[in-house]
Amino acid sequence: MSEPIWNHFLTERDKAVFAASGYGARGGFGKRPALLVIDVNWAFCGDRPEPILESIKRWRNSCGEDAWAALPYIRSLIDKCHEKGVPVLYTTGVRREDNWDSGSWLWKNARGDEDRRTVVTNLDGNEIVTPIAPGPKDIVVLKQKPSGFFGTNMASYLTLLGCDSLVVTGTTTSGCVRATVLDAFSLNYRIALAEEGCFDRSQASHAINLCDMNAKYADVVKTAEVLAFLDTLPSGMYDLPKGSATA
């Protein structure tokens, strides 16, 4: 078995502490999961696969090529959940046209005022990228802060669905994914992170945040293991939205 991605960034002392402290125990998948796809939109992926330093010239939040490498893994999880009738919930941002409601987001980024400009014709940065676009029975949660739970109906939707656990994918690992995981942990959900389905603009932040979440809040597992778990679930467990076919 290959060593965890975060081992490349840990000191020998760090490794010894994790080995001795009892953290990192396996929490398990739970019985009634939902799949969360966090902020996989044009703004965080860019409009095409390209090196991150090229992509962020136009999309300041882009994670570049790492985003596009993650999309097939996320797609495989979405497809499996659709097959089994497991809920799929997406999050993405929402803003007023004048960007007034960006609030504290503007305090820590000098390019924040770009967010309401069209950098690529006919693309809204908050739109979920086409390769993993939501289906008619999926739920899209609009948010304005990092956590998918803060100021949204996420928790009430999960209660309505009777979920006890979450499989989390998306971006950024150190930001909105982490914030969502911590809130879910605080609400006593069991959480699994599909490792290849999470991404960040910073490779070090990605690895270290996976390490920290795996130690305390969630299980970081390979996507293949999540797919194998989903295969064990009976079909038709949930009362999903009826939805409507797109024109």
Could you write a compact summary of the structure shown?
By secondary structure, the chain is of the alpha/beta class. About 35% of the residues lie in helices and about 15% in strands.
CATH superfamily: Isochorismatase-like
Q: What structural category do the secondary elements indicate?
A: alpha/beta
Spatial extent as radius of gyration: 18 Å
Uncertain regions: pLDDT < 50 for 5+ in a row? Answer: none
Number of helices: 8
CATH class equals Alpha Beta
Write the layout of secondary structure elements.
Layout: H1 12-21, E1 33-38, H2 42-45, H3 52-55, H4 65-84, E2 88-93, E3 139-143, H5 154-161, E4 165-171, H6 173-186, E5 190-199, H7 203-216, E6 219-221, H8 223-231
Parallel strand pairs: 1-2, 1-4, 2-3, 4-5, 5-6
Helix pairs in contact: 4-8, 6-7
Structure commentary:
- This protein has a single domain, classed as Isochorismatase-like (Rossmann fold, 3-Layer(aba) Sandwich), CATH 3.40.50.
- It contains eight helices and six strands; from the N terminus they run H-E-H-H-H-E-E-H-E-H-E-H-E-H.
- The protein has helices at 12-21, 42-45, 52-55, 65-84, 154-161, 173-186, 203-216, 223-231, and strands at 33-38, 88-93, 139-143, 165-171, 190-199, 219-221.
- Strands 3-2-1-4-5-6 form a six-stranded parallel β-sheet.
- The N and C termini lie far apart (46 Å).
- The mean pLDDT is 93.
List keywords for this structure.
247 residues, alpha/beta, Rossmann fold, 6-stranded parallel β-sheet, 8 helices, 15% strand, globular
